[in-house]
Specification:
Blueprint (H helix, E strand, L loop, with lengths): L21 H10 L14 E2 L11 H7 L10 H14 L3 E5 L2 H12 L5 E4 L4 H9 L3 E4 L20 H11 L6 E5 L12 H13 L3 E5 L3 H11 L8 H10 L3 E5 L10 E5 L2 H14 L10 H14 L2 H20 L12 E5 H4 L9 H13 L1 E2 L1 E3 L1 H4 L15 E5 L7 H15 L8 E5 L10 E4 L1
Parallel strand pairs: 1-10, 3-4, 5-6, 6-7
Antiparallel strand pairs: 2-8, 7-8, 9-12, 11-12, 13-14
Helix pairs in contact: 1-14, 2-11, 3-11, 4-5, 4-10, 8-9, 12-16, 14-16
């Protein structure tokens, strides 16, 4: 029998949850155009749309909010955050941003020129948008196993060194401004990257004078997987693993709304002095002063405290194992999911779940919509809708992975809530043949999954 750690916290404040009838949920979904992003949060019972900004902050973080220094420049909270980022991530410089995509925007504008190639271990939606908007082209160099949900590989987020070398040979190192190394890899199912792989990628990039920038959004979860799965790290602290991970890069973008455990904020970190000087100039245009970057002083204080709390083993063990608890229940019932279970979410394999639907019938979008109608559980499509269209041909990108993401917020739900979710998914799987596909009614030109509307076929 598997053992799952108990919650390493006590609950002081509660938020009541609304329940609705199936008929009411169906009406809400029709009003939302079969897009879970367009549902009203008050109409959702268990909200697994995202773990971004949905964290329950600790008493220490809330206490820190009360000592926010809202000075326009030189805030003491900025100085605290700057010192904590240097201590826990090891980078020389840090510029705060309003959230992760603010950091992506700065990095892309600073590093990418038209015609550049940006290799990475699977795309992420907003990251690829910023890269393409600045004239670059993303190239996926993740290992092949990451594209097969059934393969049980301990580090499916790893970069394929042969693919990276092939890109260098084809385009030349001078056309590769940096390698985008995500830890963990969201769209692969929250899959980690091994320390050995980071070492090897770093060595190859140094040989060709190519920078590495981490997408460090869920780097603490990645550190936990290294501790649990990689030889030689069993007795190493999460903090020390994290520092070694970051040492193999030249900087990172961070969405603090995930592993920094706050509701808003992010940062761009780097070692290069010249890049830092340029980033301080650019941040003023898009975010705010270099000492707040779109964040209030109180939020920077909460983030600094959250970074410290994130490396506590009791916290991160419960966080990742709670996700596994849900995944284990679904796998035991025969529900097709991405294996192994990742760090922040359980990903349903919608292609296998709804095998009677073709990909152009948007099976993941349909599955997410019907899960809400049946149970009030909100999830997110991560398949052909999220992948978007090729900007040159206008054709849909057709990813091999057609997934629905059940994303677990940090310190918000209990194991009993995971039981409710598991029961709902299993019940829907048992009548999956009744689910029909969807088609677009409204399709935005960019990042369409946020605002698109659909109707049943």
């Amino acid at each position: 029998m598997n053992h799952y750690p108990a919650e390493p916290f006590r609950i002081k404040v509660v938020e009541m949850m609304k329940t609705m009838s199936k008929e009411e949920r169906e009406a809400a979904m029709i009003e939302a155009g079969y897009n879970t992003f367009l549902l009203k949060s008050e109409d959702v019972y268990i909200d697994l749309l995202t773990d971004s900004g949905t964290t329950a902050m600790s008493d220490r973080q809330w206490a820190g909010m009360m000592i926010g220094d809202e000075a326009y420049a030189g805030s003491r909270n900025f100085l605290h955050l700057d010192a904590v980022v240097k201590e826990y991530y090891g980078f020389k410089h840090m510029v705060p941003t309003h959230q992760g995509r603010g950091a992506e925007n700065l990095l892309s504008r600073l590093k990418i020129k038209p015609g550049d190639i940006i290799p990475g271990n699977m795309y992420f939606t907003t990251t690829r948008y910023h890269q393409e908007a600045n004239g670059g082209t993303f190239k996926d160099i993740i290992i092949d196993e990451a594209h097969d949900p059934s393969v049980d590989h301990p580090f499916k987020g790893n970069i394929d060194l042969t693919k990276l070398q092939a890109l260098i040979d084809e385009y030349g190192a001078d056309r590769i401004p940096y390698v985008c190394l995500a830890v963990t890899v969201n769209l692969a199912g929250g899959q980690p990257v091994s320390m050995q792989n980071m070492r090897e990628v770093s060595a190859l990039c140094k040989k060709h004078n190519i920078d590495i920038f981490f997408d460090a959004t869920r780097c603490v979860e990645n550190a936990y997987f290294i501790k649990k799965r990689e030889e030689g790290y069993k007795h190493t602290s999460i903090k020390d693993i994290l520092l070694e991970m970051m040492s193999y890069g030249d900087g990172c973008t961070m969405s603090g709304k995930k592993d920094c455990m706050v509701n808003i904020g992010g940062f761009l970190a780097m070692n290069d002095d010249t890049l830092f000087a340029r980033s301080k100039e650019l941040v003023v245009v898009f975010e705010g002063m270099p000492s707040y970057g779109g964040m209030a002083g109180r939020d920077m204080e909460a983030m600094a405290i959250g970074i410290k709390e994130s490396v506590d083993y009791a916290y991160i063990a419960h966080r990742v194992e709670q996700v596994k608890y849900l995944g284990d229940q679904l796998e035991a019932a025969g529900v097709p999911i991405v294996r192994p279970v990742g760090g922040h979410a359980v990903f349903l394999d919608a292609r296998a779940f709804l095998s009677h639907l073709s990909q152009d019938q948007l099976p993941a979008q349909a599955l997410a919509a019907h899960l809400y109608i049946e149970s009030g559980v909100r999830s997110m499509e991560r398949g052909i809708v999220s992948a978007g269209r090729n900007k040159e041909t206008g054709k849909n990108h057709s990813p091999k992975l057609e997934l629905v993401r059940l994303t677990i917020p940090r310190r918000v739900y209990t194991y009993a809530h995971m039981d409710v979710v598991a029961d709902a998914v299993i019940a829907l799987y048992n009548k999956r043949e009744s689910i029909t596909g969807l088609e677009f009614v409204y399709e935005p030109p960019m990042l369409r999954f946020f605002n698109a509307r659909f109707k049943p076929l």
